[in-house]
Amino acid sequence: MTEQGRTVESVRRANLGSILGIVHRDGPQSRAALTESTGLNRSTVADLVGTLVSFGLVTERAPDPSRRVGRPSPVVAVDPSVVAIAVNPEVDALEIAAVGLDRDIRAVVVLPQEHLLTPERTAELVADQIASWRAAELAGARVLGVGLAVPGLVRIEDGLVRDAPHLGWVDAPLRDLVAAATGIPVVVGNDATLGTIAEHLFGAASGIDHAVYLNGGASGIGGGIIVNGMPVAGAGGYAGEFGQNRPGIATLADRRARDGVLEDEVSRARLLSVVGLGRGDDRELGEALAAQIDTPSVAGEVERQRRILATALSNAVNVLNPSAIVLGGFLSVLAGLDVAALEHAVRTQAMPPCGEHLRILPAALAEHRLLIGAAEAIFESVLSNPQPV
After folding, report:
1. Which residues, in sequence order, are CB contacts of 168 under 8 Å at separation 6+?
2. 0.70 exceeded by pTM
3. How many CB atoms neighbour CB 42 within 10 A?
4. Which CATH superfamily, name and number, covers 82-194+369-384?
5. How confident is the model at residue 1 (pLDDT cuts 50, 70, 90)?
């Protein structure tokens, strides 16, 4: 192929990705709307849409009959049969979901675990679940791959889990194990990093170019950073480990873990314990805290954790100057008890110009944020370079 031919093909691929990206992010669009969004002419859009239909990535349907003004324009939507498998291994459960390219959750299962999962057992359970779904919920679906959101440090280049301390995984070749068990492509990423991407694309940080995301889960606290509209991964892919920072604690009485890090002090397990729950999801924790917030022991623990969290967030504000901080998981529950007070506490400790326009927002995708992020890691390749599926 000549240089000119390669240039023409690369432009066409970019235009295909642009149209697919629009209907993926924003939902079904008329051809007329796609023409306006892309700046391409109508015939080019029609040709590109036809190619995406032939690739099995989008469908076209008749326009809304209620629209009677002007020439009817077919509506383009992502093909609902295209899915990714999203997986989130945690210390107490393995969550697996089938997520459509339209972001619809086709199926989801939570498998409680009495003992810590091993990488090998994780791969086995994922493969078994996919096989089960292919015979039922996903019969006829086209599975692009498996995305895993892992609570630990994941090396970008090969998906090696360098350290997932709460799971006890060190240098675990999780990508290769799951690929061998399932026979389909696999992408592995840090859970909070993937949650950051999901919230930036579809959730609370949508349209925000400078944001910090902190996720609180059973394995502790992770995070992610958006700068100039782009996720910041770091040299090895390990950026955003806010939970491993040592927080400034103003009074000795607030300290619970000697030389502890943030996730030792601001802890889901401590909150569950103070409300008398052995285990529970974020909804159950939130309900229990709300019901017992007037109990001195509960109120004291909540305020202690909020004080320490505010200090940690103010440090992030001084360093990164975000427009918004998005909190997910139990951190959203903790903040939601009084968001305005938490914002005030953060601004009080931050440099005034850095925090003057700061907003603290709950994660909008709720319990699905990590799963949507994990699926997005699989969809990324087809969105950037659409191919037949």
Report:
1. 116
2. yes
3. 13
4. ATPase, nucleotide binding domain (3.30.420.40)
5. low
